[in-house]
Amino acid sequence: MPTNHQHSYSFDAVKAALLDTTAPFPPAMIYFFSDITGEDLDRLKAVWPQVSIERRRGLLEDMETLAEGDTLLNFDPVAIMCLEDPDPVARATAIRALWQSDQEDLVPLLVKRLQEDPEAVVRTAAATALGTFVELGELDEIKAETYQQVVACLIKAHLDAKDTLVCRRALESLGFASHPDVQDFIRRAYESNDDEWLQSALFAMGRSYDQQWIDLVLHMFEHPDPQVRYEAIRAAGELEAKAARELIFDILEEGTDDEDLYDAALWALSKIGGEGVRELIESALEDTEDMDETLFLEEALENLTFTEQVGELDLMRFDDEDLDDWLDDDAAVF
To answer: In the chain, at which end, N or C, are there fewer CB atoms within 10 A of the end residue's CB?
Structure first.
């Protein structure tokens, strides 16, 4: 459905602004590209090669940012068009703009970029984007053959890619997969004595939701590299590792100047839940005057509420099972 912003501008006005290198592109015009009509997309394809590289890159970055903040915006057709952009940075940015999309038709396009694109920055972005479809495959929300194609492509990239970052991003995307080889890939990365590979291993562990990794994740809370500690805390949250709660409280009580680490700790607690977590986040919310931090903390509280609700449902299911066992035992007596 076209947005109200689209109706404010004709394609000719947008085209003129795209080609005018003497003035910045009007920010309000970016909304024109959301839910763009097929006719206007064809016109855009014709004029796009004439737009400067810097402007193409900037527009795609703006679309990515806007789409992250407003899920009603849909720049996918423009991003798909830009997968063939001659500029590798534009191609990689277009892929990032598609990271939140779950259209199964994207899979062949992303696989092609991962397998054939000459630039590592593009292949890296494609490896990350395909992680969405690994998760969807595990949830049976895409066709089995599509899921198998994605996993096979990522395994090949992880094992054979010449660029280390492509290999690492492929492993991170494979974290969702139940494929029997993935656990070995993760363990090998964890034991590699390479901090960057360790970060990817921890990231994949968090995505796996496999409780076997919890002890290994907690062991990295004391790692000297702050990025490794960040990934360990993040993974503990994704694994909902209750054993991490007090450790994370200790980290926050000691204090840290690393804002990313601080936010990761609070978010992990919102995923784990338990005694003292709500009070901690509410206290942080009362103390902050930063708008971005306020929004983050409010989201953390919403996430904590969800965590608590899920926990209550699990407890109810457990109680029902206990009741059934008691009734069975009681019936056996008679």
So the answer is: C
Query: What is the pLDDT at residue 255?
Result: 84
What's the CA gap between 237 and 334, in Å, rounded? 47
Measured in Å, how far apart are the chain's first and last C-alpha atoms? 66
CA dist 31 and 146 (Å) reads: 32
Domain residue ranges in the chain: 209-334
* Residue for token pair 């810097």: 54
Give the residue-averaged pLDDT of 248-258: 90
**Residue 234: Cβ-neighbour burial (10 angstroms; 0-12, 13-18, 19+):** buried
The answer to whether the predicted template modeling score (pTM) of the entire model surpasses 0.85 is yes
Tokens 């495959």 -> residue: 137
Superfamily for domain range 209-334: Leucine-rich Repeat Variant (1.25.10.10)
Q: Which amino acid makes up residue 278?
A: R
Neighbours of 121 (CB within 10 A): 17
Tokens 């920010």 correspond to 27
Q: What is the pLDDT of residue 71?
A: 85
